[in-house]
Structure formats: C-alpha cells, structure tokens
Design a protein that fits this description.
Blueprint: E1 3-12, H1 18-35, E2 38-44, E3 47-55, H2 56-67, E4 73-84, E5 95-98, E6 103-104, H3 112-122, H4 127-136
Parallel strand pairs: 2-5
Antiparallel strand pairs: 1-3, 1-4, 2-3, 5-6
The structure holds flavin mononucleotide.
Flavin mononucleotide (FMN) binds at residues 10, 24, 27-28, 31-32, 41, 48, 50, 62, 66-67, 70, 72-73, 94.
Length: 139
Amino acid sequence: MNLYQLIYISTATSKINEDTIRDIGIKASEKNKTEQVTGLLAYKGDNFIQVLEGKKKDVLNIYQNIIVKDKRNTRHLIVYEGEISKKEFGEWGMATFNAGSYKKVAIDNDQSDESFRLQVKIEGSSFVSRLLRTYLRSF
Ligand SMILES: Cc1cc2nc3c(=O)[nH]c(=O)nc-3n(C[C@H](O)[C@H](O)[C@H](O)COP(=O)(O)O)c2cc1C
C-alpha cells in the first residue's frame, strides 16, 4: 500500500479550548478510523498543525473535503506532502496535543504513558518531529 503524508498549518477562527479540540479529536478519530487515516493534531494559541497519514486518496479527501471546509479553521497552508514508507503516528486515530502546556488532550480513557509516548515522538529527530517542534516553538 502506498502511504501518503500531508502536513498543513491553519489558524483557528475563534479561541481554541480543550473542549473544541476534544470534539474535533473524537470526530476525526471516528472518521479517520474508517478510512485508516491516522495522525496528530497539535495546537498552540490559535495555530493548528496537523499530520495526516494514510492512502493518498483518503488523506486528500479528508483534507480537502472536511478540514479545509470546516469553518473553525482558516488560512490553510500545506507545509509538506509526499509518499512515506512508514507511518509516524500510526498508533493514534488522531492524537490531539496542546503544545502550549505540552499535554496530550485526553479524549477517552487517556493514559499517561500514551502522553509520554507522544511526547517522545515529538521530541524525536525525524523530519516530522523537527518540523513540529520548529513550528510550535515559533509562537
Ligand atoms: C483543525 C481541524 C482538524 C480536523 N481534522 C479532522 C480529521 O483529521 N478528520 C476528520 O474527519 N475531520 C477533521 N476535522 C473536522 C471535524 O472534526 C468535523 O467536524 C467532523 O469530521 C465532521 O463531522 P460531522 O459533520 O459528522 O459533525 C478537523 C477540523 C479542524 C478544525
């Protein structure tokens, strides 16, 4: 299976709080599960950065037809897209991460070791980890 990765940034149209993120995370995880798309949605202040990974057509469908049309975010900019050999965030339907407090936003029965694994990943040396850190620390 050809795997595709798309990373974009966008701006929230109104103030983001953990309830908004939880709502997006739950819906995204449900929908993405049926399409086998996984990833990470991180935010800091009004700024989102999301990594989507899966089959190219599914990733593009979610990005173009759902995310870009969602009025809760605007000014989308793709910062990377291309084929990948392995998923970076394969174990999460859609992990949501508050980079302001450096905490994973609890969705269901959040476990702290999961938060820890996510943090280790973000602190890693891969291209995506470095991109996430550079972006999120610029605010
Ligand atoms: C920043 C952001 C990221 C989102 N990411 C996803 C996603 O990865 N997958 C998805 O299906 N929806 C995503 N959404 C869309 C919402 O969760 C959307 O409300 C939901 O998928 C549509 O569900 P509904 O129309 O059944 O309520 C995102 C929305 C925003 C604002």
